[in-house]
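## Example pair
The file below holds two records. Each record gives the amino-acid sequence first, followed by its structure token line.
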Amino acid sequence: MAFTSTFDGHVIELNGATGADGLRLGYSPKALLLSGLAGCSGIDVVEMLQKMRVPFSKLEIITESEQTEDHPRVFRDIEIEYRIDAAPEFEDKVKRAVDLSIEKYCGVAAMLKKNSTIIPKIVLI
């Protein structure tokens, strides 16, 4: 149940098995897909906020989704929460950056949207 994926000299360990404690022994392929969405959108958002001159020092992205019961088990709605330490006066710019990422620039989001609704949420911390 364990696989190693390499790309340009970088290695990711994937593991579909669980330990005796019920916890995964590594990234599952679907968890890695959600991480890919977070990373893709995060890069977009950071680049846009820098261009918009929005000061922040921390951006955390949390993704969650349930899967269908029938096979192939696919994601239902995907919730993606952007936790950012931007000041309240920049909330509209943060929302614009997130919307542009999900709707226009993030290729991972474009692929996932063909099957699942992506629901973004912004939390100023």
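Second record, same layout:
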Amino acid sequence: MRILYLNPGGMLGGAERVLLSVLKAVRQARPEARLHLWCMEKGALLDRAAALGVDVEHLPASAMLAELGDSQLHVGATGPWWSLTRRLVTSGPALWSLADELRRRIRRLGPDLIHSNAIKSHLLLALAGAGRVGAGRAAVLWHVHDYCGRRRLAGRGLGWAASRARLAVAISASVAGDLERVAPRLPARVIHNAIDVDEFAPHGAIAPLDVLAGLPAVAAGTVRVGLVATFARWKGQPVFLEAAARLVHGGGGAPVRFYIIGAPIYRTANSQFSLEELQALAAARGLTGHVGFVDFQQDPAAAYRALDVVVHASTQPEPFGLTIVEAMACGRAVVATPCGGAAELIRPGCDALAAPPGHPEELARRLEDLIHDDELRRRLGAEAVRTVRERFNAGRLAAEWEDAYRACLFPSRSGTRGRLSRV
């Protein structure tokens, strides 16, 4: 069997790390399968996939196409609409050229199945004619990592493109429910993301966060609190900084240092904070020296282990929340916003604490509890490890994705034309 994986970016964001876990599982389950990964940008994803024995290829796209996206439209202003419209008109010829090139390459490769890993690749495949009914056509599977219905323009495009896909795999029941509103006729199932519990474990390498942040070493006993995320504007860095300011300036006596770990790794215009913007927000809140900024880490497990508390502060419903599971697997105490797919991951008060999205005062209260209670941190961390090993161990992925691929290739045999199958 020959499987083609298509992903827009080459950097290792959450969706890309999930894709690597799928590639690893499929390689182990089907060593004879020929796996191909095409990305429109170069980056560590291609290198990591090649190390797994995947044939990798760069599908060149212009910077203009890489920056296309409608994630900024939720702000409701007319400016982003006009900006996106101009980019769409200007990039039209390059987009059709890329779709034509993709069509030719797919025809030459002749895959049995195409695993599309992002909204941009779903739409591009439809423009390229992939998934049309006809002999010898590859079956198209959408791996859905985002809330399509919340994307005002892309959601409409996906409703049109859904007829070209045979099956969707959503990363949470919340995402599957959203997809059903956009593409009600597209069969879907849920496969929760999973991680390598040997890589993400309580013991192992520890990142030197203070050195990486350019800060002096802290005193023994200082509690380290960090947010690990891309710089997407909905990931909640301003909420985290406001909560940190409340704790730093509100007294309490316990030594604590905060960290923002990540970078603006995607190229979609207006969708991310810059490092300078976040540093300015921290300075405006009097947090200079209290917050360290650490670049995106290729080994996130070492960064989690360097923290005592990991914060997930997304201000919009989270499709899944890979950071939550990874931090829990490393035995860290986690505070998460239990909205969307994130609500499917934790048991508040048992293996994590919960704080409502967009409420820095509530986040500060949860953090204050953890900063002053070593035993609470230990208890939550120990229970979190058990939760991940039971529910999110990557060992289950091979069987689940084998079944999904079979359902996509042979829908009449699998019975998956029912609306939703949860794995």
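Notes on the second record: Residues 72-79, 416-423 have pLDDT under 50 and may be disordered. DSSP finds 16 helices and 14 strands in the chain.
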